[in-house]
Amino acid sequence: MKHNKSSLKKTTVVDFKQDAAFFVDRGTRFLNRYDYEKALRSFRRAIELEPTNAECHCHLASALAETGQFEASNDVLYEVIEKWDTSMSEVYFYMANNYANLEDYQMAEEMAVRYLQEEGNGPYREDAEELLDYIYFELDMPPRHFQPSENEDVYSKHERARRSLEEGRFLEALDILKEIVEADPSFLPAWNNLSLAYYYVGDFQQSMNTIEKTLEMENGNLHALCNLAVLLSHHNHTTELITLIDMLKKVVPFHPENTYKLATTMGVLGQHEEAYFHYLRMLKSGRPHEACTYHYAAISAYLSGRKDQALRWWQKAKQLDPDAGVADQYIQMVKSEQEGENIKPIPYQYNPPQKEVSWEQASFTGVENFKTDPMIRASLLWALQHGRDEVKFAVLQTLSLIGDDEAETAVRQFYDSTDNPQLQKLALLALADMGAAMPEHAPKSGDSESFDEWNHATVEEGIQRFLVEDGQVAAGKWCLQFWQEHQENAQSHVQVRKALAWVAALEYVYGTVSQQKQSQAFLAQKYGVSVSTVAKCVKVLSMLDFK
């Protein structure tokens, strides 16, 4: 009897070990093939076999994040760091990414900073810093925490510079931003804000150079491209501008802050249809927005012919910021305009419509708006660089009334840069009116025309302008005569450099003599000087006989 050879072969049994490592490897292969269901089953099986293995839990968390289950992923990661391996600092980075995907940016910042604190030179350091850059500068969220590393100073400095830009302290911002890019040339948000700072102070060539450097480092940087478009528009470089606008029209940013930047830029460039499209996308997202965003969106709707939508958005702006009074004026403007009439141009600024800036009138009406409005400050600095001589004269007067550190710095820089002797003297007058020290190389008393003579002439001019030309002829004549007597009889010259303080004091003295007394506080506010300075001048004048 013959036997089949195959039936005589000895059967061999292979021990196929299916441990946690096997299922992790299997899950990874399924994940790479986008078979998420099998990947999740494999990683859960690995955890069943080795429940205390922290890496198995991390693989499961990664797969959950891949499927969009970010909260479930973080639940697993919290368990890892609390129960299985407290030294796995990379878990904080994983959680930061999950929170960012959930748009919980405060917790994303918390976790990213925690990772950098635990693992300053870890493998995800650059990624964590990029996430913080995105939160702080793309989302425009001020830092709540600063990691203890060399980047701490960069972040805090940049936030300070950003606030300075928003508040109109452009020269201060310029100095801070230059320090940042010198210390860290790869820090793109600082380069973008540096170009804006140069633009606001009127140094357009440096602004252009800065934009070009930014685009060399990142060719498609949206903020830099938007800044470039505004600069090209300012210089009437039509051909390059049209090409750039055509390119920007094709961009549809994902993130709201990039959308906001592009929408505002398109509006400033007169591309109101595109601005409206982007604002509409932002406001449809369901996220909360500030009143100014609804205001800008309303402008884009109004200027693209959508008046009903503009009214709805201005109503929303009014609801969010009822005390500002801005939306009320625009609502009335739309309601009073007849259908078919030409639409008036409106700037993309959160201000009442048709607001005009008159530097020559600043000393008459007070300077509070000039102190607090960043756009007015930018206009002043621009005019000091590029305006006619008579405009520069008015700007110097206004800066002397503002009198803060930013104004003093601007006047000093102008004094050093101009070669016009007349404007140099006006700059010295402005510095003296602020009570600032004179430049070392400034003319000393006893030169061809002393500074005191300029100051006295200005007091007389102030009396003429603020009293005589304002209809107070009798008061003006009395003050001129009394001022001349003071100059002839004064035993010593008190160091009060603000000419308008003397005018205020003279008007106060006249009011006392003529039974038309006004308070020193009222007159100090009228002339934009401090009450203490007016009181000092009144004390000096009272040494003469009033009658």
From TrEMBL:
Keywords: Repeat, TPR repeat
Pfam families (UniProt xref): TPR_11 (PF13414), TPR_8 (PF13181)
Stretches of the chain forming a coiled coil according to its record: none
TPR repeats mapped onto the chain: 20-53, 188-221
Highest rank taxon of the organism: Bacteria
InterPro entries per record: TPR-like_helical_dom_sf, TPR_rpt, Ycf3
Record PANTHER family: TETRATRICOPEPTIDE REPEAT PROTEIN 6, UDP-N-ACETYLGLUCOSAMINE--PEPTIDE N-ACETYLGLUCOSAMINYLTRANSFERASE SPINDLY-RELATED
Name of the protein in question: Tetratricopeptide repeat protein
